[in-house]
Amino acid sequence: MKYPIAIQQGDDNTAYGIIIPDIAGCYSASDEYENILKNAKEAIVLHISGMMKDGEPIPMPTDSDNYKDDPDFEGVSWATVDVQIDELY
């Protein structure tokens, strides 16, 4: 499953912010640009694992275009993270 992630620009004093909009409450951050995808995947796996333990439905990924007109995502960069849900069982 390929989840879109929104990346908020970081700088010398601020980490890159990572938002997974398809999974409510799922966020991460990275001091290094190179670790954004790894950190996002870790956040998704941990969040979904908790949802599975709680018996909650797993949100399906959508396309980042669903958020293009959302002012909360103005100025972010987009990427996708591939998470194999069957590996979590």
UniProtKB/TrEMBL annotation:
Gene3D superfamilies: 3.30.160.250. Pfam families: HicB_lk_antitox (PF15919). Transmembrane segments: none annotated. Residues 3-88 form the HicB-like antitoxin of toxin-antitoxin system domain. This is Type II toxin-antitoxin system HicB family antitoxin. It comes from Psychrobacter saeujeotis. InterPro entries: HicB-like (IPR031807), TTHA1013/TTHA0281-like (IPR035069). It comes from the Bacteria.
